[in-house]
# Entry
Amino acid sequence: MNLDPHVWRILGAGILFVAVFPGTSFIVNRRWCRGIFSVVPREVALLAALVFLLAILFEASLNPLYVVVFGDKLWVYRLFPLHDGNVSALAVVAWTSYGVHLYFLNQTLDSRIAAGPHRNLIKAALIGCEAPLLWEVLGNGFFLLTVGEFYAYYLPGDIFHFTSLRVIPVYMLCIYTGLHVHGYLRRRAADWWLTAGLFAAGIAFLGAG
# Structure
């Protein structure tokens, strides 16, 4: 396959990303979790596929909505952009990796936040800050170091274009929705066919961009 060397470098960085970020999350959350820390492959795959699909659907709809309300985009993807730069083909790497991280992080949060009607609300608030202020900053830094370009370039410059405080409420809303969808699917003993369907739907959506 005769691809541009820069494309190969981006693909290589994506593969390294899959190893480094979920692996680090596993180590950190295994240490921080106060209860039993487990890894159930079927549940990991379900959350990874669900996060991948929901994230790209939210990105493709909320960024244009942000333009309607505020007159400009909140972010533009620089690496393998799709859907007018609102989504990236690397989402298959980045968002599935974040889904794996969320599987580990969920166990830590569940061990530290009392069960109750407000648990998902608290988790959405915490993850809504963690995702942009830690994950996006580290992710953009990773791709800047490995390929010399932002993965997702934020137009507001409040955090040097690595992310933006303005995206935190968006994350909180999306995560709160996602937590309820995930809970609904888990209660119905979702199997591998559903996971494969979610992932295939995400790939099809990227292909349509």
